[in-house]
Give the backbone structure.
Amino acid sequence: MSINRVIYWAILVAAMITSAAEAETSYWRIASDRVTVMSSGSSERCARLAAELIAFERILRQEANWDASYELPPVTVYAISQQDARRVFLSEAERKQQAVTRFQIFSKYLPDRDSTTLALVDVGGIDDPLQSIFLMYAEGLLTNGPTLHDPPWYQFGIANLFNGLIIRSDGSALLNRNVPFEPMDSGKHVQHESYGLPKLLRIGTADLNAGGDFKSYLAAAREWAQFGLLTGEQRRSQYRELALQMRQGAPADEAVKAAFGKSLDELTSEFATGNWRYQVQFRINPIESAKPFPEPVKLESGEAEALLRVLAARAQRGGADQP
């Protein structure tokens, strides 16, 4: 699914670039089945990234209610040093943007037809680049694959549950109560638009493409997903049934009646009271992994440089307009 506007999901922070000479960066790599992780720093860092990615994919699969037979496309993760980011991370358009804005891009989501590249810059142990990568990855997967034809409130709502999440060492996730990352809009669309539940449910992909306040839409879809998925099994089942009914063409009013057993007006009133917020569970339990990853392997400098060139070529093709 494509939203025809300039929405650039990335973590932008004030640039703090030094020109001092730096030693060559060491890299480690893990390759297992469909997942490849290349990381600077240490073997522990590489192993942790791989474990967090798999934990995140399992949690996303659970919350999106994907069929067990659905196989995620191959994914490659690059976690590179700031030194190497200066030469391989940005397209020419992004370099120009960075020079004008004085902000630096630290994460990128680069999907292809059959695979995905996730790239982030290591910035002194800060979690922001990884958190933004998970958000971009979730949104990309949910607007394709098994949920391609689900209503946008379902796709974007579930994706934005993971806005700012942290994956813990046991594989559990702690969701963020705030909204750390927002899309950068072109500024040509309506701002500060309100999305009550009836309007949220009735908006389709074509409406989003036509304009509107996308930031406010995402915030409303996220709240609706919290209501539907994080307040108990009954609502979780009803929320999913509502998405199914609407995917099959039922109008919002009829779909709500079929899924929740009440009118849209009644459900809107229940949602608007906000009492449900006291029931929201922001921790998602770990899901057992099928098998462990192999140990990270330290890369020779020539091999690491070859892989960095692959990333550079992919970054050039990605450009500044990303999903």
Observations:
- The chain has twelve helices and eleven strands.
